[in-house]
Amino acid sequence: MIIDSHTHADEAPGFGWFDPPETIIRLLDEAQIEQAIVMTYRDAPGPEEGVIEYIAEAVQRYPDRLIGYARMNPRYGDEAVELFDRAIRDYKMKGLKLHPVSYVMHPASEPTLALIRHAASLGAPILFHCGDEEFTLPLQIAEAAAAVPDATIILGHMGGYFHVRDAIRVAKRFPNIVLETSAMPYPRMLKEAVDALGAERILFASDGPGCDPTLEVEKVRRAGLSPDQEELLFRGNIHRILGGVIH
Amino acid sequence: MLIDAHAHVGDSLFGVRQSVEDLLASMAEHDIVQAVLVPLRPSGYHLEPENDRIAAAVQAHPDRFAGFARVDPWQGEAALRELRRALDNLGLIGLYLHPFEEQFAANDEIVFPFVDLLRDRGLPLLLAGGYPVFSHPSQIGDLARQFPDVTIIATHGGQINISGLLLADATRMLRANPNVIMETSGIYREDFIEDTVNELGADRVVFGSNAPYMDQGFEAARIRLAHLDEATKDAIGGQNIRRLCRLPAPSPT
């Protein structure tokens, strides 16, 4: 069984985005992936209403396939924390997604830490976009992991193209950091990360539908891991992490 | 059946290596019938022995390989002499430039004499594309605009950004410059390959692996799994680069 720890559904004509839940469901079917964590491209709160409800409805439509994360904009302060709280308690979402490029704020800024602290108090993981852009570098996000040691911080894309070794380094230093495999182009770096950190610290994800879930599965299969290690990446680790969420 | 438009042999300063034998074994495993070979940056400063290495591999396996020369434009007149030697004496059939590893902007004037020579010979440029500061898609476009009759193959789709922040730049660059072809190694994202083929045509995309920096088998899967019809996958998987480089039909393995 495979759980994909990072996919998207959203319909935002103003941005030119049209990826209804059916798009990712079709790609998951192709890849024989049973379940996926799904999130919007838009942040909440934001200029448009209904972002959190969009994911809630997608999960309601495919309750056996989709698990929701709330993608938030920390600049909204208490309003963001309260909306995130409702996403977990009322809509039974399982985690927090942050993409600091979309709201242009340091990942360890005080408003971001307030959201992270609240997620940690609910046992909900925090998935950061973690690539090569400002405000998303592993060493920058590590400051947030250091500030809130009881938060589970997931580095989505595990450092992108140029910062994979930095992602491994900060995960070695901070035990609350977990790496996530999507879009990162080097199969051999998955093996390097597993050898350095243990397979318990790595999650499989695709970043579909832009990235192809079938190809992302192929990347893990080509990394030279043992069947037990693959099982942890594909299912065991995220299952364990999401088991700690308090609604 | 695939043809790899971008594979390296040699020992890289940056810690990767690939022998001709390793590459041939990988190609056999992944049903890749031919490859365009380009030099790695060696631990020494000199690229001449690397061009010799590529030429020797092509001579040993003429039905499997073609080769591009690599020079460092910062070496000026000496590098231009080396490019002439590689094309005239070694039988290499294009130029590979790596702005990131050799630290020059893709659109810097120091590059122009080399592209002039390619234009005179009707040969293509393989350009390491999308690297921060040195080969941003807009810099590739600025070079391509000034050499409209030189085919420029931009690796990584001409953009490297895992947020998708350069997809718009790369698409604009490809639209504005019909002489640019994008190569697919390590590309973000799969739908960028599909969208480019659908908007600009299958002849604007070629498969390349960037092995051994990247994984040849995984990069081959990127093409095989694309949501495109078989004829399109044949074109981007091999027919385009075969036509562009006038590669011979391979003998049966």
E-strand count of chain B: 10
Order of helices and strands of chain A: EEEHEHEHEHHEHEHEHEHH
What proportion strand of chain A?
Answer: 15-25%
State the end-to-end distance of chain B: 12 Å
Instruction: Work out the count of structural domains of chain B.
Output: 1
What does this structure look like?
The complex is a heterodimer of chains A (247) and B (253). In chain A, helix 3 (78-89) packs parallel to helix 5 (110-121) and helix 7 packs parallel to helix 8 (187-197). Chain A has an eight-stranded parallel beta sheet with strand order 1-4-5-6-7-8-9-10, with helices on both faces. A two-stranded antiparallel sheet of chain A has the order 2-3. Chain A has helices at residues 21-31, 51-61, 78-89, 100-103, 110-121, 138-147, 164-173, 187-197, 213-221, 227-242, and strands at 3-8, 10-12, 17-19, 35-39, 66-71, 95-98, 126-129, 153-156, 177-180, 202-203. Chain A is α/β, with parallel strands linked by helices and 247 residues long. The model of chain A has no long low-confidence stretch (mean pLDDT 97). Chain A has ten helices and ten strands. Chain A starts with a strand and ends in a 5-residue tail after the last helix. Chain A has a single domain (3-242), classed as TIM Barrel (Alpha-Beta Barrel). The relative contact order of chain A is 0.14. Chain B has helices spanning 20-29, 48-60, 76-88, 99-102, 112-121, 137-146, 167-176, 190-200, 216-224, 230-245, and strands spanning 2-11, 17-18, 32-39, 65-67, 69-70, 95-97, 125-127, 152-154, 180-183, 205-206. In chain B, helix 6 runs parallel beside helix 7. Chain B has a single domain, classed as TIM Barrel (Alpha-Beta Barrel), CATH 3.20.20.140. Chain B contains ten helices and ten strands. The mean pLDDT of chain B is 97. Chain B has a six-stranded parallel beta sheet. Chain A binds chain B through residues 99, 101, 129, 131-133, 136, 157, 160-162, 183-188, 207, 209-212, 214-215, 218-219, 222, and chain B through 132, 160-165, 185-186, 188-192, 214-215, 217-218, 221-222, 225-227.
